[in-house]
Amino acid sequence: MARQDKGGTIPIIKHEISIHAPIQVCFDLARTVEVHAGKTLLTKQIAIDGVTFGLMELGDFVTWETIHLGMKQKFSSKIVEMVKPYRFTDAIVYGVFHTFTHTHEFIERGSETIMKDTISFKSPLGILGKVADHLFLKRYMRHYIAHQAQKVKRGAEATKYS
């Protein structure tokens, strides 16, 4: 999936997962810095500035030091929109991407929550970035977002509710 902007096509990645936990638990875990930090198969991510632990709120930012695609990098993201406990959007304000937004949506369905992630991004380097998007970056980002969603799911479903 993609959408058009002034500079051409912007890749869009969507992911959906069912979580057997209340909506508020899922919403809070998805915006908890510690859930996104740590070593995984894909990255080694450490919060180094801004909100470095706990829940992120509207207007908060975090700077991450990470390894993606074998390259060490830093990027800062900011929570630019929030409707508790249904949706929040973070956007990269500093980093390698020309643009990058990630919308997290939460829908209550009986005793479970549907978490929907939508990422749109524009790579740097013009035509070279578009080639990278097509050859590997879209697939990498799809895998990365599914992995992050699984972390939220595991944490939420491990929580005991009273």
From TrEMBL:
<keyword id="KW-0132">Cell division</keyword>
<keyword id="KW-0131">Cell cycle</keyword>
<dbReference type="InterPro" id="IPR023393">
    <property type="entry name" value="START-like_dom_sf"/>
</dbReference>
<protein>
    <submittedName>
        <fullName>Cell division protein</fullName>
    </submittedName>
</protein>
<dbReference type="GO" id="GO:0051301">
    <property type="term" value="P:cell division"/>
</dbReference>
